[in-house]
């Protein structure tokens, strides 16, 4: 029998969690869905969704299972990650219900079309991000602003909180680009972190 799973991203506000539970429970009754199994996730929404409980749930879900969340912001904090999650659910035939916005991806032809559109939207979003980054760097360079970090060891790098996760990937000899994708960062961000924190594991520059 298909499972109904309610995903709650837990914050420090206990009332917020209670509101998520109440809203999802009422929604399932109104939609004649089975009583949901509530799964709480305490990991920050800044962590890539693949590394959170949400990623595990979607990976383990089977066709026909239902995933219910209170609102889009509970899935992720970036448009690109939300699009990736939706596309993944459509691809696995996992029905996704977002209570607050009324979005339902339920395996219908409409959902299949939407899944294709979501994939296209994700590609467009990536292109926009890349274009905005390049334009911003060009403006800074034209203004004479030094690009990159100043010489010396940075006190804090973006990937520092993921050090143990990266070490685990390294121990498994995972390709660097695959690691970057799982971490939700550009390959160059990972390479820079490795050069600063794990120089022995950093990619060697190509000789030319």
TrEMBL record:
MF annotations from Gene Ontology: DNA binding; DNA strand exchange activity
UniProt-listed SMART domains: Resolvase
Active site: 11
InterPro entries assigned: Recombinase_CS, Resolv_N, Resolvase-like_N_sf, SSR_resolvase
Record keywords: DNA integration, DNA recombination, DNA-binding, Plasmid
GO terms for biological process, alphabetical: DNA integration
PROSITE patterns: RECOMBINASES_1, RECOMBINASES_3
Resolvase/invertase-type recombinase catalytic domain span: 3-144
UniProt name for this protein: Recombinase family protein
Organism: Xylophilus rhododendri
Lineage: Bacteria, Pseudomonadati, Pseudomonadota, Betaproteobacteria, Burkholderiales
